[in-house]
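Deliverable D5.2: sample structural annotation.
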Amino acid sequence: MAAVMTLPRQVSRAEMGDRLFVLGGKLVWLLLLGVAVLLPLLAIFWRGFSSEAGQGGGLVAARELVTSDNFHWLLGNSLKVSLSVAAIVVPLAYLFAYALQRTLIPAKPIWRGLSLLPLMAPSMLPGIALVYLFGNQGLLRGLLADNIYGFWGIVLGEVIYTFPHALMILLSALSLADARLFDAASSMGASPARAFRSITWPATRQAVFAAFCLVFTLTITDFGVPVVVGGDYQVLALEAYKAVVGQQQFGRGALIGMVLLLPALFSFGVDTWLRRRHGDAMSGRAQVFRPAPSRARDACYLAIVVLICAALLLVFGMAVYSSLVKFWPYNLSLSLSHYQFEDTAGGGWLAYRNSLILALCSALIGSVLIFTGAYLMEKTKGQKGLNLALRLLSFVPMAVPGLVLGLGYVFFFNLNGNPLHVFYGTMTLLVVCTIAHYLTTAQMTATTALRQLDAEFEAAALSLKAPLYRHYLRVTVPICLPALLDIVRYLFVSAMTTVSAAIFLYRPDTILAAVAVLNMDDAGNVGGAAAMSTLILFTSGSVSLLLAWASRGALRRSQAWRQSAPGQ
């Protein structure tokens, strides 16, 4: 009788634990997103539409802005650049991801590592390297009929900058596949092209759209590349940067920033529509897909991969070389004088140490919060309205320029009477801002991986009366560990390279390395800027390699389910 009486109490505790984990976790995540994303953006809207002196100028100023010929010209330039970059990057990233996941090309870890190089340096570095390569005094100036400054300079720089962002999403989408579907297609005489159209493309087209939207919004909101190689070709993000930094017109910058929020709303709407039409791509009975040998196929994809990696090596190799040259192009002897940061303006080694602290905190804290939040939204039932609000807030940072997000933090956290004002200028606020700034890409990576898992996993846990949080820790996290490690690596290198979101939030004792790059470039010390960028690049690369080595054993254990059974 005693045993019978205790059973309902145990079940009740498990159910209450699940409810606390799901509902409590979602509410906490909503609170964090509200403080880190929503309230700063509301402060931007207040600043932009306020008619008070020194503010945005109200609806009259907004109407004058959007109806002016200059705004139409800037908007047309931004759309042209962003669409061109997305049209180039997404097909290249898809081919690269397909080569890594669905072919037998050699040296896959090397190619993947090289493809991530643009993530490991400030966004200005591709522009600086292109100037050294194709500028007026560039090493390969004779290869171009015109100089690099303008539309094509921005497009090339943004293609390099956004390529790994799209690649992360597409790699996650192509990493899991059910071999039974391909075996069935082969047994019915379907060609590889037909199998791709019938199986692979339907399972990955949502990720393709997500990658396209991400590249588009990253390009339209970036000012790092245009400020270096834009020349007379102006775009909206650069106009916002100039309005704030050069002219101190914070209201005008806020108005332009609000215009740049529209792509996020469009992406959210279409993603919601596609979500209803998309089914699970992997079931609990899935078998591991292993590509069949094909020399012609592998040779073609290897050529594509080698060409892309060679272009990346050329750009970043040129950046490293320029940091070692004494005085370009007149004295090409090599020296480490540009690395003596204590003798130059910009922040010195203090900025580098602060960036390391920021990167570690952002990677460890951000990855746990983002992956858990994605799991609660994708793999738990109920709270549809709450899930909708969480998805919307998670998508918004994708279209918010870092400069505008930083302004929102200034307006909100520096507001008189705000109890959170104590965090202004501290490393804590920089960590929060960095996680919020790079939230969407990490969220989409986690979501893409979680959508590959069938709901049967959670149903099995419920049938066994196992608490959901225990299933999350013991089943979901190990299966999705590759995607989780990608998020950790992405957040670390993004924090090392962030500049736009933190440009207004640091104090002299919390200055960051990427901000020091901007300061040195503004001071005319281009060699020092290249040297600090190179140091950031090597630090991010070294930590990524260290993380891959340290996690190799964990990956081997957690991914044992991918191995074929004996005798198969």
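Annotation notes: The mean pLDDT is 80. The first helix runs from residue 2 to 49.
The annotation will be released with the project's public dataset once the embargo ends.
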